[in-house]
Amino acid sequence: MAERAALEELVKLQGERVRGLKQQKASAELIEEEVAKLLKLKAQLGPDESKQKFVLKTPKGTRDYSPRQMAVREKVFDIIIRCFKRHGAEVIDTPVFELKETLMGKYGEDSKLIYDLKDQGGELLSLRYDLTVPFARYLAMNKLTNIKRYHIAKVYRRDNPAMTRGRYREFYQCDFDIAGNFDPMIPDAECLKIMCEILSSLQIGDFLVKVNDRRILDGMFAICGVSDSKFRTICSSVDKLDKVTTQAVLLQTPAQAGEEPLGVGSVAAGGRYDGLVGMFDPKGRKVPCVGLSIGVERIFSIVEQRLEALEEKIRTTETQVLVASAQKKLLEERLKLVSELWDAGIKAELLYKKNPKLLNQLQYCEEAGIPLVAIIGEQELKDGVIKLRSVTSREEVREVAEDLKSGQNRAFNFYYGTTPFSYKAQEA
Amino acid sequence: MAERAALEELVKLQGERVRGLKQQKASAELIEEEVAKLLKLKAQLGPDESKQKFVLKTPKETLMGKYGEDSKLIYDLKDQGGELLSLRYDLTVPFARYLAMNKLTNIKRYHIAKVYRRDNPAMTRGRYREFYQCDFDIAGNFDPMIPDAECLKIMCEILSSLQIGDFLVKVNDRRILDGMFAICGVSDSKFRTICSSVDKLDKVSWEEVKNEMVGEKGLAPEVADRIGDYVQQHGGVSLVEQLLQDPKLSQNKQALEGLGDLKLLFEYLTLFGIDDKISFDLSLARGLDYYTGVIYEAVLLQTPAQAGEEPLGVGSVAAGGRYDGLVGMFDPKGRKVPCVGLSIGVERIFSIVEQRLEALEEKIRTTETQVLVASAQKKLLEERLKLVSELWDAGIKAELLYKKNPKLLNQLQYCEEAGIPLVAIIGEQELKDGVIKLRSVTSREEVDVRREDLVEEIKRRTGQPLCIC
């Protein structure tokens, strides 16, 4: 970086030199010589960034989520959120950036991994590093003494991303916390119950939750003779957990022995942290907190991997029926019918072609996993019916009369419960 | 206008002064003083009209000129030695980048996410620096106007379902505007600035707009009059047909194309049953940068009842259009992927819905808890923990107070505050009898339910399906 700055400075000075010589009307050879030097220097700088062709990539350590990946993500979040709601949690959201000073001094050595925003004349900002510090800031700012909340959002760390291991610079955190002064260990127990419910529902394999307590560790190190100064290096976990700590790990089954080490390792963690909110409160008022964080990014990878292994098709839409036409010049009828289905709350699509071939329409259904196709045909129109066909069996499900809303509803209700995709339980 | 330009210049200079002081690490009081002056100046400017929410912006790298104005609103990340990064300004540019990067030729996708603009936030008007955008787009080469019609159908379905009041969707076409200005005699260089004047017709009178165009933007009065003949018109498909017969407009190839497409669009919208919500409005001229064809904007219609309310209920709540040239700007080979889409102004809708709920005095529940597991006497924590766990395992949304010996009154009060409908009370006598008292919080009616029947009873009362879904 310093080299580039020096080079840029040289380019600037040489440019001034050339301009000066031209002004003084120096000899042509001298000017030419100095211009040649200038061009050489500029060449060393490399191509001018502003003239470069647009580079098509996401920033290092980040990724787009394709429809397929979003389907997995949505399913995983659905299971997790259902569990949080089952336990009576509220949900909050906070801005993606915080004042730089809010984050300073909370992450110890990891502070160098924080993304700062450029100083553009306003407040100094940084991207959030986790959801816990914003939570503590939220509690202190609103003078809340108790809340049970979950928060699912992306956080940012200038890590060295090892993509195959599912470590990114932008990734989801999925936190649940109970703040407040309560009778001992009841909320702590509920957090562990939640962790177990979630990991069971996700069906990603057997797991074990390891539990310990910072006070036990400290006491143990003390009686073993470890000096205070060495404590924090011996335990590498985040400083804020000052009492109970928990970590859930997946247990590798013999069947998985050959697989990528994705299916093993920590998938959730948490603990009690009574001192954090007090750091934000102007009067240092403490609000005890206990919580957990689900490692969703790792879980996405595991679920994706399992689905591929099972060769289960992941649907990326929830469309129940395609409105198709068997002959030409039936666009009007298709538009009318699909509109009635939408108005009745049915998930329907049509091809954006005036005269699509029936075969192409059926193929579209197969590729997208759409279970039903409602075919409009000239003869059927005269008879006042629509042919409703199952895409997989190719059998006609029924011929429904023109009174579509009720007719279609009955047929569709049968299929309505279909989830976008199912993923089967891991056989023991 | 000249005053505004002068104010803008002052704001710019004062901003530079502030930055300079910060760089020099001047005293905090001095900085604060100068920042206060800056803020006062900015306040005089009021909200900046040119920074529309739904304008599609070109990426920095491809069209330096147009982006110039808005690039100062982009949040940059500090150069920490790696790639130079910025926070996304909208969802359309990332979408175009995604299509080009993955060489996709067609997709129908929605994307709901936050975007970032270093705007001058006027919080009371619901303008923030971090806010949600809610986009839906159909990319691909298809038969004309079918996807465009579906976008409008979607817009209408959403705005109806939200129940935020009656609305109207204004529709126009970039090619009609271009053609119309051309035949009226507007030079290319004045196109954008005349557009922004014409666009104000929804708020001010034609006289004012004409004065601005002639008096401030140097347009010849005859040209302005000709424009006036067109832009004050709005209507249904009959207006489209009328303009197709217009002797001057029908000579313009672009306008003809636009009118032809709108005619087809109206046919499809009629089949979709939403033609009564659509108005062909020649004064719709906003956010034209990247639209290449049909453009639309949905506005809420203010009812007399709302007259006293905050002007939150008026104005645009959704917008969109066709933009066939954007993806091509990203593709290395310049391959075009035609796109049409819409964006829902959710932040404004949040405000409106919140306002309506408050007016109706409707209580908003923040949890979905169905039953609180309570104890009537002391020393019943174990039983509460066991019962609540059974309920959770059966998929019921339940809570308990984190107290060993809570008072029944406090537990009932908790239910009332949180809106929890049922409370399952464990009592010493009931334990002996093998029952739980199930109470409705609102009606206060109680019934003894056998422990083994409790799950089913709760599910029945809360309308939950009996199987775990």
Topology:
The structure is a homodimer.
Chain A: H1 2-23, H2 28-45, H3 67-86, E1 90-91, E2 97-99, H4 100-103, E3 125-127, H5 132-141, E4 147-156, E5 170-179, H6 186-201, E6 207-213, H7 214-224, H8 231-234, E7 244-250, E8 265-272, H9 276-280, E9 289-294, H10 296-309, E10 321-325, H11 331-343, E11 348-349, H12 358-368, E12 372-376, H13 378-383, E13 385-390, E14 396-401, H14 404-416
Parallel strand pairs in A: 1-4, 10-11, 10-12
Antiparallel strand pairs in A: 2-3, 4-5, 5-9, 6-7, 7-8, 8-9, 12-13, 13-14
Provide structural commentary:
Chain B: This is Histidine--tRNA ligase, cytoplasmic. Chain B: Homodimer. Chain B: Keywords: Aminoacyl-tRNA synthetase, ATP-binding, Coiled coil, Cytoplasm, Ligase, Nucleotide-binding, Phosphoprotein, Protein biosynthesis. Chain B: L-histidine binds at residues 90-92, 117, 133, 137, 286, 290-291. Chain B: Its EC number is 6.1.1.21. The structure is a homodimer. With 428 residues, chain A is of the alpha+beta class. The first copy, chain A, folds into three domains: 1-53, S15/NS1, RNA-binding (Helix Hairpins); 65-206 and 266-308, 2-Layer Sandwich (BirA Bifunctional Protein, domain 2), CATH 3.30.930; 319-414, Rossmann fold (3-Layer(aba) Sandwich), CATH 3.40.50.800. Helices cover 39% and strands 19% of the residues of chain A. Chain A has 14 helices and 14 strands. Chain A has helices at residues 2-23, 28-45, 67-86, 100-103, 132-141, 186-201, 214-224, 231-234, 276-280, 296-309, 331-343, 358-368, 378-383, 404-416, and strands at residues 90-91, 97-99, 125-127, 147-156, 170-179, 207-213, 244-250, 265-272, 289-294, 321-325, 348-349, 372-376, 385-390, 396-401. In chain A, strands 1-4-5-9-8-7-6 form a seven-stranded mixed beta sheet. A five-stranded mixed beta sheet of chain A has the order 11-10-12-13-14, with helices on both faces. In chain A, strand 13 and strand 14 (396-401) form a beta hairpin. In chain A, helix 1 (2-23) runs antiparallel to helix 2 (28-45). Chain A is flat, with a radius of gyration of 31 Å. Mean pLDDT of chain A is 84; it is low at 48-52, 256-263 and 405-428. At the A-B interface, helix 3, strand 1, helix 6 and helix 11 of A face helix 1, helix 4, strand 1, helix 5 and helix 14 of B.
